């Protein structure tokens, strides 16, 4: 490997939520035994190209008001063309967003009054739950259903029924999907978008995981599947997940419908809380470079190894069901049968794991009553260590 994915960084006292989280939930994990698999950031240093671009900018010691550069927008356009063969994002169609969740919150404000029902899938990314609850929307959940191979699928009949019964106008869509790890196929996206067209819904499409597709799976931008989809979708992207720079903040929207774009831009401009940080702009141009892409390709190999290792471990335990994610680095094994056979509750199992130092996360935070979520984005030596810590829990 050209890049370093093996160094184990001590993030204690380095502003790291992942390591130093104080929530009661993780009190059982002693600081020097902590293996943080609970939050979606990574234990890897970011791509050297990111650091180099920031350092280069820092050689000029003035950080006054600034203009987002052509280089910034060009990097986004080129990244999407190379990654997805999609030329949707341009300087005109791309808007800065203060975090993907910030963008989602703005889009919700634009599209629906508080109290309105919003359709989304379960299991559900917990950030969506916080935003919807925090802003007073009503979540209408359509559960993903495993097919005969155990692959979670959208249940179109259920979605349609919910749309009709609840008079849904807005859907909050996650692609690739956190926490199931599904990378939706073109057919699946087409079917879903046809349904949204039939009922004239606006689609908020969170595509923050779009780069981290694994095992040869390809991300397809929601807005790219048809002309109609391009006009009803507000999409959000970011380099933050892929390049481990969530602390830099820096996401962006892509809205191809001029009316929707103008309305979103105006709403966001009014509050003056949606301005990019100059270093974050340079972080993005470093990330979305050829060197950044080379780093990302190596990262994916490491993530695949980690996922394979953890999946093999859980598959060997009778009563545990595990779907191997097609993207993201998130694994959500289902312990329903195992817990039933051992007479133990899921929260007891989650707690026991945490007491070994493995900070995994009870599925109750994700509308996933039988699962526990693990983010496998640490050096492989740490993932293997986590497996050895968990193993004794399952040999009872
Ligand atoms: C689906 C999804 N959307 C948004 C976010 C958070 O994005 P941001 O930090 O840009 O608000 C995450 C983080 O894990 C995520 O998984």
List the helices and strands and how they pair.
Layout: H1 17-20, E1 35-36, H2 48-58, H3 70-84, E2 94-97, H4 100-111, E3 117-122, H5 126-134, E4 138-143, E5 145-146, E6 152-153, H6 156-166, E7 170-174, H7 186-198, E8 202-206, H8 227-232, E9 233-237, E10 251-255, H9 258-271, H10 278-287, H11 290-315, E11 330-331, H12 336-342, H13 346-355, E12 358-359, E13 361-362, E14 372-375, H14 380-390
Parallel strand pairs: 1-12, 3-4, 3-7, 7-8, 8-9
Antiparallel strand pairs: 2-10, 5-6, 9-10, 11-14, 13-14
Pyridoxal-5'-phosphate (PLP) is lined by residues 40, 99-101, 125, 127, 174, 178, 206, 208, 238, 240, 246, 251.
Give a structural overview.
The chain is of the alpha/beta class and 396 residues long. The protein has helices at 17-20, 48-58, 70-84, 100-111, 126-134, 156-166, 186-198, 227-232, 258-271, 278-287, 290-315, 336-342, 346-355, 380-390; strands at 35-36, 94-97, 117-122, 138-143, 145-146, 152-153, 170-174, 202-206, 233-237, 251-255, 330-331, 358-359, 361-362, 372-375. The chain folds into 2 domains: 17-46 and 293-394, Aspartate Aminotransferase, domain 1 (Alpha-Beta Complex); 51-291, Type I PLP-dependent aspartate aminotransferase-like (Major domain) (Aspartate Aminotransferase, domain 2), CATH 3.40.640.10. Helix content is 40%, strand content 13%. Strand 8 (202-206), helix 8 and strand 9 form a beta-alpha-beta unit. Helix 2 runs antiparallel to helix 10 (278-287), helix 3 packs parallel to helix 10 (278-287) and helix 11 packs parallel to helix 14 (380-390). The radius of gyration is 21 Å and the shape is globular. The site of pyridoxal-5'-phosphate has 14 residues, from helix 4. Pyridoxal-5'-phosphate binds next to helix 4.
């Amino acid at each position: 490997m050209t890049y370093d994915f093996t160094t184990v960084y001590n993030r204690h006292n380095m502003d790291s939520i992942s390591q130093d989280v104080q929530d009661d939930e993780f009190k059982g994990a002693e600081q020097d035994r902590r293996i943080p698999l609970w939050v979606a950031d990574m234990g890897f240093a970011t791509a050297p190209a990111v650091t180099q671009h920031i350092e280069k900018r820092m050689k000029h010691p003035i950080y006054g008001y600034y203009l987002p550069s052509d280089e910034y927008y060009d990097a986004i356009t080129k990244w999407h063309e190379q990654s997805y063969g999609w030329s949707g994002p341009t300087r005109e169609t791309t808007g800065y967003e203060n975090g993907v969740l910030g963008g989602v919150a703005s889009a919700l404000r634009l599209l629906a009054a508080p109290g309105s029902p919003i359709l989304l899938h379960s299991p559900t990314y917990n950030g969506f739950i916080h935003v919807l609850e925090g802003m007073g929307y009503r979540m209408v959940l359509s559960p993903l259903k495993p097919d005969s191979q155990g692959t979670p699928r959208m249940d179109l009949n259920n979605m349609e029924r919910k749309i009709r019964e609840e008079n849904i106008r807005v859907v909050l869509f996650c692609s690739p999907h956190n926490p199931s790890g599904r990378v939706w196929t073109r057919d699946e996206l087409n079917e879903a978008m046809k349904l949204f067209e039939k009922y004239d819904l606006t689609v908020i499409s969170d595509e923050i995981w779009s780069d981290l597709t694994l095992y040869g799976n390809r991300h397809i931008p929601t807005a790219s599947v048809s002309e109609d989809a391009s006009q009803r979708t507000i999409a959000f992207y970011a380099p933050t997940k892929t390049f481990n720079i969530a602390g830099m903040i820096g996401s962006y929207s892509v809205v191809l419908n001029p009316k929707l774009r103008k309305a979103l831009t105006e709403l966001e401009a009014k509050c003056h809380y949606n301005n990019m940080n100059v270093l974050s702009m340079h972080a993005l141009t470093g990330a979305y470079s050829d060197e950044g892409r080379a780093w990302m390709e190596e990262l994916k190999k490491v993530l695949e190894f980690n996922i394979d290792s953890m999946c093999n471990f859980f598959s060997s335990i009778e009563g545990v069901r595990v779907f191997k994610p097609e993207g993201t680095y998130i694994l959500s094994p289902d312990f329903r049968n195992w817990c039933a056979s051992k007479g133990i509750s899921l929260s007891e199992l989650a707690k026991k794991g945490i007491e070994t130092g493995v900070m995994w996360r009870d599925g109750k935070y994700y509308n996933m009553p039988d699962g526990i979520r693990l983010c496998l984005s640490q050096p492989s030596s740490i993932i293997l260590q986590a497996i050895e810590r968990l193993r004794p829990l399952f040999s009872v």
